[in-house]
Amino acid sequence: MVLQIIGIALSASAALRFGFVVTGKLDSSQQSIREVAVSYVSEVLAPGESVLYQARLSPVIFFLPALLLAPASVLLALTLFVQRYHFIAPLGIIACCAPVWMLTSAWIRRRSTEIAITEKRLIFRRGVVRVDADELWLERIQSVQTIQTTMDRLLRKGSVIVHESGVGVIQIEDIGDPMSFRRALAARQ
Predict the structure, then answer these.
(1) pTM of the entire structure?
(2) Which of 37, 54, 95, 96 has the fewest CB atoms found within 10 Å of its own CB?
């Protein structure tokens, strides 16, 4: 339902930037518009090429903004409902805006990042307005480096750095389960 409203409100070019496109016309029986998710990976696949492994950024990127939002919400509630604290109401509103902004940017970052391994290449794309897309041929990958702190290991996230035999380097930060990604990459080399 939400995608229908957004699909109607946005132009086709803006819809493509946000990762979906309106395809179809009003159907007389359904009276709705169908949306089909369009990903960068599916657009750049060569004929006969298929995705073998797909990774996402870890949901842990939402932890800090959510942690900051809790006390900011309490401060806002105090300023709005307790009359003697009315003079700090702007501070409560500002304190809530920062974590909401951080949550929104983390959500956009997670939704706009695509990581895939096909039979032939590693595909990494991130961004909405400024899009960075990197593709490395699997036979040219020289080394794969995984970086995980103790806390990263507990949270099953980390960073992966892939070095190509030339000068190509892809650094993927905050990837969920980086060891599975590394195993999938090593199995295809």
Answers:
(1) 0.70
(2) 37
